[in-house]
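Hi there, hope your week has been kind to you so far. For a while now I've been wondering how a particular protein folds. I'm sending you its amino acid sequence along with the C-alpha cells. Could you read through the record and tell me how the C-alpha cells relate to the sequence? Take your time with it, there's no hurry, and the full record follows here.
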Amino acid sequence: MVAGEVITIQAGSFANFTGAHYWNFQDELLGLSESQETGHTAAQVDPNVLFTQTETRQGQPIYTPRLVLFDLSGSLGGASQSSLEGSSRGAPAVTTWTGPVAVHRADPVPRSRFVQQLELEPEEEPPGPSTSQDTSNAYHAIAEAARELDSEGGVQSWTDFLKVRLHPRSLALLPGVWQGAADFSGFGHGRGALGSDEARENALDRIRCFAEECDSLQGFQYFSDDLSGFGHFSYELLQMMQDDYARSPVLLFAPRPSLDETPTQQASASRQRRLSEAVSMARLSEVSSVYVPLAPPVSLPCVRWQPGNVFHASALCATVVDTATLPYRLARTPPHGPLGVPIGACDLHSLAELLATSRQNNLTAAFAEVPCPDVPEAHAAAAAADARTGDTLSSASPFTMQRAFSWTPGIPADVEERLAESVVLRGAQRGGRPLRADEAAQALDAALLQEGVRCVRHRCVVPQALPIPLPFPHIFPDSGSGSSHGSRANGITNGGNGVRSASSHQQRPMDNPASLPVLSRLCASPAAADVAKTKLERFEGLVSSGAGRATLQGWGYTEDDIAEIRERLESMASAFDHEEDF
C-alpha cells in the first residue's frame, strides 16, 4: 500500500541542480531495490511516494517523477525538452503566421559525454545472453564519462547529469525570459512571470495533472531559488495553489549555493541580495507550511568540496534534503531486511504540524552531519544501559548538536533552545559496518537524552544509507568514517527507468564511497526570530536609502507592498515573545 503521494515542484536553476541530484538518489534506490543483496533494505523507501509507475510492453516497471519544474528559456544546456522526456517530438509548428520567417540559430551547446553514454544504454535488457565483458565495458564507459563531470567546465546545466526521464508535463520553461539575456537575479524580477491568464493556467494544469492521479495526496515538497526572480515566481504560484490545495502542506526548501554573500560582491549586487533575503523570508514563509533556507557550510570535515562550485553545492544540499524527507517516504509495510526495518515513519502533514510551532514564524533551521561518524563502542554500551544513569556518554557524541553544522543562514550551529525538531539518522554504522535500526535508535536516543534539551521531537532511523550515484562530485573520501559500505563495486543492473545502476562485482573507478551515513535535523527554534530581526533591520535601512527604494520600485513594488513586507517581518521577529504564540 502506498504511503501517500507527494508532488515535487522545482523552480530555478540552482533548485533544479539540487533536484537533479535528488532524483539521481531516487533512481539509485530503484536500482538497489532490484538486487538480491540490497533489495529488502532499499525497498523500505517507497518509490511510489515520489514516482508515477507504468509498465513496458514486457511488463517491466517504468518510474517517472511526480514532478513539475520551472526554469528559464535556454537553460537546458545541450539537452532538448523532448530528450529529457524520452520522446521524439519536435518543436510545435507556428500556424498563425503566414508571412516571411527569419530563423536565427545559435551554435548548439554540446551535451555532456555522460548523457551521451546513458543514451547508448538500451531501455530494456536485450534478448539473448550478454557477456560479463560487455557489462564491464558498458559500466566503465559510463563511469569515466561521469568522472568528467567533476572537471573544470564539466557541468554547464543540471541536464548534464540528470539520470531520470521526465514526464511530458513536468518541464516548463518561462516564455520570453531567456537565460543570460534577461535580468532575473533579484527576488522581484520574477514579478509578472505568471502575469497572463494562460501562463497561470498552464502552471496550475501541470500540477493538477499529477494531483488528479493521486489516491491520497500527502502534500508538496517545493525546491525554490528564493533569492532570484524565481522567489517571487514561487510566491505567486503558491498563492494560486492555495485555492485548490489549501489543506495540503507545503514543505519549502530554499537551496542556495552559499550561506552568505561573497565579500567581492559589488554594492549593487550586495544591496539586491539583502533585499531579496528580506523579501523572500517575508513572502515565502506566508505561502508555505515550513520554510527551510539551506546552504552548505564552507568547511565540513571529511568533505572535499569547492565553495562556489554549483555542482558541488547542489549535491550537498540534495544530500540533506533527501535525508530530511525520508520519514514521509517510507513504506507503510516495509519489508524486513538484514538490518531490521525503519523506525519513525510519518506523513508530510504530521511533519509540517510538528515544525510549524508558531503561526507567525515558520522558518525552520537545518542541521546535518555529512557524513555522520561511526557510533563508537562506548556509545553502544551506554545506549544498552539505562540512559538516565549512563554518565559515560559524552556530549560529543556524533549525534549531538556539538558535532552538527548549521545549514541555514543566520542560525548558529550551537543553538540550544529548540521548540520542536525532526531528527533523521540513516545508514548508521559502527566500526565501518552497518548498524541494525534498533541498535542505531538506542544510540541516537541516548545521545539526544544526554543533550538535556526538552522539546517536541520526532526521530526516524532508517537502515538505508544515502546511495551515491555515478554522476556525483568526488567530494567524499573512500575510507574512514565517510564510507559506509566501502568502494562501490559494480556489475550493472537495470534500474526502474532503464538507467543502469550498481550492484557488486567490479571495483568502482571513482573516489566516492558507495553510500554514506547521514544525520539531519530540522529544528523550530526561537533563533528564527533573531534571523527575522536582522532581516527587518537591513530591510528598513535599505528602504530608507534612495538606492534601496529604487531597487524595490524597479521590481514594481508599491508602498503597500513595502508595508506588507515590513509588517510580516515584524510579526516574525516577535513571534516567540509570548508563550501563547506557539
